[in-house]
Amino acid sequence: MEPRNAILWTLLVVLVVLAMSAGVQAEEIREVPASKILEQIQAGEDVCLENVRITGEFNMSKIELETVPIAREAWKIRNYGLEDELKIVESEIEITNSVFENNVDFSNTQFKKILNFYNSSFLGISDFRGVCFDDDVSFVSARFWYYVSFISTSFGDYVSFAGASFGGDAYFWGASFGDYVSFAGASFGGNASFVYTKFNKVFFLNTAFTNVSFYDVDFKTMNVDWASFSDVLVFDGPTYIKLIKNFREMEQFKDADDAYYQYRRLSQANKEWSFSKLGDVFMWLSCGYGVKPQYTTILAVIVILIFTIIYWFGNGIRRLKESDEMEYLFSWDDVPGKDNEGLIRYLGSNFGIDQAENVEILKSDDDKTIYIHNDDESAKIMIDEKEEKATLKTSDRETHHLKVKKENGELNIYEKSNEDVSFCDAFYFSVVTFTTVGYGDWYPKDRYRKFVMIEGLVGWLTLALFLVTLANVMIRP
Description:
Layout: H1 3-28, E1 31-33, H2 34-42, E2 47-50, E3 53-55, E4 58-59, E5 67-69, H3 74-80, E6 85-89, E7 93-96, E8 99-100, E9 104-105, E10 109-111, E11 115-116, E12 121-122, E13 126-127, E14 132-133, E15 137-138, E16 143-144, E17 148-149, E18 158-160, E19 165-166, E20 170-171, E21 180-182, E22 187-193, E23 201-203, E24 208-213, E25 221-223, E26 233-234, H4 237-249, H5 253-269, H6 275-287, H7 293-313, E27 317-319, E28 326-331, H8 340-351, E29 360-363, E30 369-373, E31 378-383, E32 389-394, E33 399-407, E34 410-416, H9 423-434, E35 442-444, H10 449-474
Parallel strand pairs: 1-3, 2-7, 3-8, 4-9, 6-10, 7-11, 8-12, 9-13, 10-14, 11-15, 12-16, 13-17, 15-18, 16-19, 17-20, 18-21, 19-22, 20-22, 21-23, 22-24, 23-25, 24-26
Antiparallel strand pairs: 5-6, 27-35, 28-34, 29-30, 30-31, 31-32, 32-33, 33-34
Helix pairs in contact: 4-5, 5-6, 6-7, 7-9, 7-10
């Protein structure tokens, strides 16, 4: 193609596009009085409009139509502004890609045929209270800029608000829907209330809420992602249970777990402090109410680290196979006396008798027993007849064996030297104790046996809780 022809074709395409755009703009600015549409409806004529701007107030109560009585509870009539009869509209109404400039009032009306407001905008207040839609209704991609009310509205078998946008509060109190309704992709900028609403099958997929209430709502099937509800939801207990059951039936197990977790958290928050609430707090922190095994893992790590620190700082464990190297403690003949300090140092580092100024040391008349005590603790050291061994016993019923050596005419007391416990050693011991697989090549000192017993019991309970929670999450009915 020659360059000149290419340029001509390009210009032609641009002109066509501009002409089409101008035509669309011409359609967009076409205005239709609301009174004219109301006249068509009153005459029973179908309404089919597209790309129009509807001016003036659209109010169904301004026209004369045949009415039919409807049974309604007195309190609904009084509180919701409903009437005990409906105006009957026989017209099929399709107003698409259009704009309602003022308030619209469709309240207390029965529509026999299809209503279609696809991609239309409602710039004022939209009132659909007490409306009865006998046929399908479409608000697909509609935009409600202010307050909209569908209080006590009855919908037909098919209703769609897919992609609709609600700029203000939207109320569906006491509304009832037929077989199918979709809010997929809709967005609610204000409060959305579905209190006492009845659904059959409803879709809330990819729906955005600012705040939504489903108090005492009734439904058979609800297609929704929990992420749409988790932070903005107001439910009562029975509705939570319905939603959890709904998720499980639809095999959305993670959503069911998340909904159950939030239900239990809210239930716990509403309780007064009692044993029941304490039990809930324990179940929350330990296993996420049975649906979060990672909580149990975190608990296990915390417990292991706490006991690791206890064993590490207290030097509370020893190797099963210790070195033969002996550590001198004190001279038997110099206690009481100049070796008191060595004895007190040993007792303080191992048995908590470390207040030197309050420690009293005595020896029996037969020189076979040394008695030590302060305000809180006491101990005694007994030497055997052969003067080869000594036994230390504390008031806590701890027993420790010492070695006696005769050196230079004196009886010296020794203990097998103990290496300091490293953090890694303490951590290893804590892990094997927590998992109840034994002590490995370490064992606890006498005064630390109670900590080992406590950790073993906590570990056994925690592992059992972890397995139950994991089974609950992994094994589905």
